[in-house]
Amino acid sequence: MKNAIAHLTPEAIEKAFAGTNFGRTDFEVILAETVLERAAGYNPGHRATSIATRLGLLGDKTGNVTKAGHEWAMKIFYSHHKQSKQPYEQPEQEIFTCERCGRKTSHPEGWHYCGA
To answer: What is the pLDDT of residues 36-60, one digit of tens each?
Structure first.
């Protein structure tokens, strides 16, 4: 697979997208989305499909995803997914005690069912 996609350098991808306007410049992600959409049976659009075909990620005649294209798209997808993952830190919850019944609650406004 490495030989099949060795030509997919960032410079080659940027050159393939020269003169296009997708509204964003993360061309690797656009290509990966195109390949994965074609694998799922959707039509991602003519321009993106043409670029992916020219780069060898989609087949020339059928437009189906090539094995190298699928592996490359999954690699890009997971590498960007790992980069965007930030550990979620839950904010410290303040505990409120009802003056009437003595029950404790963590609701920001102190709401609870007061049986008093």
So the answer is: 999 999 988 899 999 999 999 999 8
* Average pLDDT value for the chain: 83
The answer to whether residues 95 and 51 belong to one domain is no
| C-alpha closest to that of 111 among 23, 39, 100 | 100
Whether this prediction's pTM lies above 0.70 is answered by no
Question: Does residue 98 lie within any of the structural domains?
Answer: yes
- Domain count of the fold of the chain: 2
What distance lies between CA 34 and its chain's CA centroid? 12
Look up the domain containing 77 and give its range: 10-84
Residues 101, 109: Cα–Cα separation, whole Å: 16
With a CB cutoff of 8 Å and minimum separation 6, the contacts of 6 are none
